[in-house]
Amino acid sequence: MTLIFGHRGAAGDYPENTMLSFKAAKAAKADGIELDVQMTKDGELVVIHDETVDRTTNGTGFVKELTFEEISRLDASYKFTQYKGGSFIPTLNEVLEWAKQQIEFIVNIELKNGIIDYPKIEEKTIKLIYKHSLQKRVIISSFNHYSLVTCKEISSEIETAILYMEGLYMPWKYAESIGAKGLHPHYHAAKGEVISQSKSHGISVRPFTINDTQLMQRLINEKCTGFFTDFPETAVELKLKGD
C-alpha cells in the first residue's frame, strides 16, 4: 500500500510548515506529514523550510540570527492571506507533541543542514523524538548524507532516508552503505526500476513532490512505498479509488 505524506502539511492549500497545514493533512487522511527543521540563534528547533524567514513570513533575516521569541511573533501565513493572524512558525517540539496523539501517524523530519551547519542539530532532534516516544513513527531525511550517518550513530532504531535530486546508480546499495532504509528522490529520479529494485532490497522509496494526478496514479499502480504531495486530499482520494 502506497503511503501518502503531506508535504510541509497540505502546502497546496494552507501556509506551509504550520500547524494549520499539518492538521489539514491529517484531516485529509494522509498517512503522515513531512516538515523541515532549522535552528534559531538561541538553539530552538523550529519548523521552516528556508534558511531565512523572508519568503514565508512578514519578517526578514536568517533563522540562525533570530531568537525563538523573535521568530514566534512572525506571521507565517505566506501567500494564504485568509489565514493571516492565525499562522505561526511552530517548534519541532510543538509538532511532535501533537503528532504523538495521532494514531499510527508518521512524521518525516527533514534536517535543513545542507547549507548551514547547525551544531548538534542531529542530537537535539533525536532527543525530542525520544521525549515523545516517536522513534518508531519518525523518519529523518536530509540532503546532507553525513548528517544521516551521524543520526544513525546516535540512534540505530530511527529510520533515515536519503534525499537526492539526480539519478544515482544502484541507490539501494548506497542506502545500505550508510545504514539508510529509505530513498527520497526527486520524482525524475524515481524510475520504475529504482522502485522495484530498492523494494526488493528492503529499501523504501518515497519520491517528492508529486502534485500531478497521473504521476500519483503511476506511483500507486507501481506500489511505490509512498510519496510526498502538496495535495494530500487528492492523493488519498486516488488511492481509495484503487482499493
UniProtKB/TrEMBL annotation:
Q: Which InterPro entries does the protein's record reference?
A: GP_PDE_dom, PLC-like_Pdiesterase_TIM-brl
Please name the GO terms that the record assigns under molecular function.
phosphoric diester hydrolase activity
Residues in GP-PDE domain copies: 2-239
Per the database entry, which stretches of residues form a coiled coil?
none
* Gene3D superfamilies xrefs: Phosphatidylinositol (PI) phosphodiesterase
Cited PROSITE patterns: GP_PDE
An individual GO BP term: lipid metabolic process
**PANTHER family registered for this protein in UniProt:** GLYCEROPHOSPHODIESTER PHOSPHODIESTERASE, CYTOPLASMIC (PTHR46211:SF1), GLYCEROPHOSPHORYL DIESTER PHOSPHODIESTERASE (PTHR46211)
Q: What is this protein called?
A: GP-PDE domain-containing protein
Organism name: Metabacillus litoralis
Give the organism's phylogenetic lineage: Bacteria, Bacillati, Bacillota, Bacilli, Bacillales
